[in-house]
């Protein structure tokens, strides 16, 4: 009886979700994958990955993120798909694309590939500089601060790779990316940097909220399991007392 009740609770928590939730997770996975494709295409080191291929894959990812939720909903309706496994797979896509993307930016800072201002730009008077170059010059002035930023990015990304550290990594990276996105907006950074930060911020925000929800559901399931065990023990005790009477 107890095992049946546990199955009922688990099925209740893992029941099929609404189409809106499917759209949300698929769209988020599409955005984080697009962000990763853009950074790979913009690296300049992958000669086999030309812009035509990059933007073709971006288009495919975007369309897939919009179409797949409806296919998923239909397949789930006829019980032809395991939604639990699909959720886990898409959730993994969000985790690993965010982790790889942010870790890449962190390593760029450590290797001195970011916050580098060309001499012809730095020699100009400050009132002739754009917000982007002023920001890069300011952050590039202290190598130690750049190292701290890179450690946060690499460390936070590393935490996303472990289930027990998911929430901590998501909280750290969300605070970091929110600050970075605000800098990109108000200091007029280039459109590519702004797009990257917005896409990653959306992905991390969704990822963080999902992690909170998963942990909350686990605690709720644990509480109900404890309640069932207490109820079962009480029933056994009451039965034994009645038999003695």
Would you spell out the secondary-structure blueprint of this structure?
Layout: H1 2-13, H2 19-41, H3 51-77, H4 83-110, H5 119-122, H6 131-140, H7 143-159, H8 166-186, H9 191-244
Helix pairs in contact: 1-9, 2-3, 2-4, 2-9, 4-7, 4-9, 7-8, 8-9
Write a brief caption for the model.
With 245 residues, this protein is an all-alpha fold. It is 80% helix and 0% strand.
Describe this structure in words.
The protein has one domain (2-231). By secondary structure, it is mainly α. It is elongated. Helix content is 80%, strand content 0%.
- SSE pattern: HHHHHHHHH
The total domain count is 1
Q: Taking Cα atoms only, what radius of gyration do you get, to the nearest Å?
A: 24 Å
* First-last Cα distance: 25 Å
Mean pLDDT across every amino acid position: 80
% residues in beta strands: under 5%
Report the sheet with the most strands, covering strand number, pairing sense and barrel closure.
none
Number of helical elements = 9
Key attributes of the depicted protein:
single chain; 245 residues; mainly alpha; 80% helix; disordered N terminus; disordered C terminus
């Amino acid at each position: 009886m107890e095992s049946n009740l546990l199955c009922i609770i688990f099925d209740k928590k893992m029941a099929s979700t609404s189409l809106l939730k499917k759209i949300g997770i698929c769209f988020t996975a599409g955005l984080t994958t697009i962000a990763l494709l853009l950074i790979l295409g913009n690296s300049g080191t992958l000669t086999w990955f030309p812009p035509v291929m990059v933007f073709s894959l971006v288009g495919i990812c975007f369309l897939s993120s919009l179409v797949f939720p409806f296919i998923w909903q239909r397949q789930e309706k006829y019980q032809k798909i395991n939604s639990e496994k699909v959720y886990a797979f898409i959730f993994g896509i969000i985790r690993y694309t965010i982790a790889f993307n942010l870790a890449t930016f962190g390593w760029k800072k450590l290797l001195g590939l970011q916050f580098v201002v060309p001499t012809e730009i730095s020699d100009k008077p400050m009132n002739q500089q754009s917000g982007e170059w002023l920001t890069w010059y300011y952050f590039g002035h202290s190598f130690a601060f750049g190292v701290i930023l890179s450690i946060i990015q690499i460390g936070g990304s590393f935490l996303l790779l472990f289930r027990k550290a998911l929430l901590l990594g998501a909280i750290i990276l969300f605070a970091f990316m929110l600050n970075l996105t605000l800098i990109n907006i108000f200091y007029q950074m280039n459109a590519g940097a702004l797009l990257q930060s917005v896409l990653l911020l959306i992905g991390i925000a969704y990822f963080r909220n999902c992690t909170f929800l998963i942990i909350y559901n686990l605690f709720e399931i644990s509480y109900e399991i404890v309640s069932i065990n207490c109820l079962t023990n009480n029933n056994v005790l009451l039965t034994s007392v009645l038999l003695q009477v």
